[in-house]
Amino acid sequence: MSTKGLLIVLSGPSGVGKGTVCSALRSRVPDLIYSVSATTRQPRLGEVDGINYFFKGRDQFLSMIENDQLLEYAEYVGNYYGTPRDFVEETIANGKDIILEIEVQGALKVKEKFPEGIFIFLTPPSLDELKDRIVGRGTETQAVIDHRMSVAVDELDLIKHYDYAVVNDEINQACKRIESIIIAEHCKVRAQR
Amino acid sequence: MSTKGLLIVLSGPSGVGKGTVCSALRSRVPDLIYSVSATTRQPRLGEVDGINYFFKGRDQFLSMIENDQLLEYAEYVGNYYGTPRDFVEETIANGKDIILEIEVQGALKVKEKFPEGIFIFLTPPSLDELKDRIVGRGTETQAVIDHRMSVAVDELDLIKHYDYAVVNDEINQACKRIESIIIAEHCKVRAQR
């Protein structure tokens, strides 16, 4: 077995179930560390620094960008969100695996800075199924649904940049496939040298 | 999931437990097809052609060599043994995985002809453990034991030509790792395209 941990990047289109699969995986594999994001937004009630997020001032965050301390970042509704490089690197240096759940564009940015990561694309069983899930969220207008579907179809084309594709047909099966990928990656001869 | 099957080549030094792991794996994964060897030796009582071996005349076997119908072959105590290419290719074309249990040199010959195979090297937990297993077989002389250990040490160096290394510390763990490798390989984006 490799003594170094792995960075597992779990991505896929909006509505595919990344969050649900990631939560299920964390309860099945308690040793798996969850990558904590940095953000400039204010903590909400009950949120703990270093557990839910690393809360940063805007200047601190801009300095992290400047010093290449983020594997990726994005601005959303006036706040910055990003993946601190240090936390990932310290975790894997300690021999632990770390999982990062992230949307498709963010994952591709991570790949540029951290190509040795294991990039897993979670796919819907079919486009109809994905549409049902997006519609099933409730109050979206037809225009929003159409836009989300169009983005999802574009994102599915980016699967070619990933190492693995896992179909999220059934939560336990999807988790089992991801667990298998992690076990197999630790057995790789390249990883062991 | 890929619609094509995979050729899984399970190899490793003499005494590491290839046969035991392979049998256990076959009962855990009933869909896995076992590669049947061709041989020129006479069938023993109860052996069935196409199940235990494909029994061939010497001329037939030589013609298979001539026509590149074997992924590898070797001569042993006056008889030929080899891996028929057709059986492997038909099985994977039908979408089924096939496992070939073979010694280290044979596996490397298979890799030359079938580089798309998944090459798994079964390793002992330690050299001491391997020695115990070789000695434990019983009636070998010290010279035979020393020779086998020396061959095993040389063979361990060939691990670099393999895709995966699986430690045979405990049979169920070794099987679980190999099952994980098979599941992961079916999720590879390359394999799905």
TrEMBL record, chains A, B:
Recorded protein name is Guanylate kinase
Kind of enzyme, top EC level? transferase
Keyword field contains ATP-binding: yes
Q: Which GO terms describe its cellular component?
A: cytosol
State the family it belongs to: Belongs to the guanylate kinase family.
> According to its UniProt entry, what is the function of this protein?
Essential for recycling GMP and indirectly, cGMP.
Listed InterPro entries: GK/Ca_channel_bsu, Guanylate_kin-like_dom, Guanylate_kinase, Guanylate_kinase_CS, P-loop_NTPase
Query: Where on this chain does ATP bind?
Result: G12, P13, S14, G15, V16, G17, K18, G19
PANTHER family given for it? GUANYLATE KINASE (PTHR23117:SF13), GUANYLATE KINASE-RELATED (PTHR23117)
UniProt keyword list: ATP-binding, Cytoplasm, Kinase, Nucleotide-binding, Transferase
What's a Pfam family in this record?
Guanylate_kin
Residue ranges annotated as transmembrane are none
Q: Which part of the chain is the Guanylate kinase-like domain?
A: 5-183
Q: Which GO terms describe its molecular function?
A: ATP binding; GMP kinase activity
User: Where is this protein localized, as stated in its record?
Assistant: Cytoplasm
Q: Which SMART domains match?
A: GuKc
E.C. no = 2.7.4.8
Question: SUPFAM superfamilies this protein is in?
Answer: P-loop containing nucleoside triphosphate hydrolases
Give the catalysed reaction(s), semicolon-separated.
GMP + ATP = GDP + ADP
